[in-house]
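Issue 218. Parser rejects a valid record. Input:
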Amino acid sequence: MARRPSPKGVALYFRNLGPRTQVALCQLPLSLIVTVIGVMTPVGWPSLLGSPLYMAGIALPIILFGACFLTPWERMPDSSYLLIPVLDLLAIGLLRNSATTLLPGLVVLVVFPVIWLAASGLLVRSSLLLCAVGPFFIMLPSAAGKFPVMTATDLTPLVLFPLVMLAVSLAIRFASVNIRAQQRELQTLSEELRELLAASQEREKLLMTILDATDVGIVAVDSNGDQLLANDMMRRWQQNAAAAGVLRADHSEELVFAQDKITPLPPDKRPLRRAIEGESFADYLVWIGKGPQQRAVSTAARPLMDDGGRLTGAVVVFSDVTGMVEAMAANEELVSNVSHEFRSPLNSILGNIDLVLEAGDGLPAITLQRLDVVQRNSERLLALVSDLTLEASAALNVHPKRTDISGLVETSIGSAQAYAERAAVALMADVPSPLWAHADPLRIGQALDNVVSNAIKYSPNGGTVTISAASTGDWVKLVVQDTGMGMAPEDAAKVFSRFFRTESARDAAIPGAGLGLAITKTIMERHGGAIACASALGGGSTFTMTLPVESNPGG
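Output the parser choked on:
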């Protein structure tokens, strides 16, 4: 379907025609009508062929039409072309007054020069005067012929018709002024829009320059997943994620793998799909690409919302963390190897000490005392090596099943009771029985032991450790609260980091390696749960562990 030209386009086309063609087009309607009347005259009104005035009235508009092309209007004053509608008034006067009895309606042709004069935009007073005076003089001869016995009926056309033409010219004048004002406003708006567009393009170029200068991939997508914006780094990531020979793969076909670098991520677990679904996440690790080009990427996403709160898209950031991941893997491998090398000699030391102590009836008391010290510290060192080995292991496996948490709490309290009595700490429990959760009893028992022993250890002046639990819909919450020394909030945020120990714990010479809570956090995350700490310096600490009630495949 052809597009209809806009009024602005028509006006621009008309201005580009040149002055001769413009004047000729304005004259064309009247010339065509007069030509038709002239062709019909021999058939319809043959008597008029003998009237010189009538024939002059027919010939003049046609001659003027030809003069429109021949006159060099571009070299003449701007208003000179208005001579054409003035002469048209003369031609219409000749036609009308030479054929009054046969063609009295020819006076209506006055509307063409009146429109031309009124819409010209030049000589305002003169053109309005001509629009009224011209029709008056055209009507005057027929009225004067009845003088001196003129009636009101004879005078009415003489007065009314010029006034009507004056009103028409005024209406056209006002409409022209209004149109020109609107055109000026539109021109102003158009210029403002061009300036805004230019400024917007400059800002867009600046934004893209900044985005391209960053060392992270940034992509913005709409709610359908269609790409709105991407920087150079992101395009490199997309190319790396595409299969060999493919310029750019679809999101679902990209080479994106889980943390084992082998298992392809299902579509609903991929960063872009999660972002399109409205998820907000950070530090989501995936591997992109295959072979030597495979890279570890940490992704983060934030949804885009409109003013009504509806999801319109998302922004996803891709950061290359391959070096850090490989460094962490090398560090864990080193810790694991060193721990393994320590374990064998420690087991040998402990085994030989046990043999000496079993056959040590004849040894002096001071020797036995020193052997006890060696045995106790060797056992402590072996426990530390075991923690290092466990924490460094990337295969800390859990085997969840339907487990009664109340039984695990009771067992943990029983194991810690002797330690608590030596530290003058009271153990209290508030756990309903049974309390079912989807958990590995061995690993959750280990996690409970870590948190409870930690609470006792950091209550050096005695106090109370309370263990409570409750089911809240899909989750079971385990809370271990102590009244011990506590820690600053900024330390509480780091307490699950490996080897982290607070300054107050070091000052108090409380033994520990800072691994127990890191292991506990790993255990909880492998269950699809979490652990959090809230503490205040001198006000005790509260550890909250959450576990799923049922199996959580997405955890």
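Fixed in the parser; the record now loads. The longest helix spans residues 152-213.
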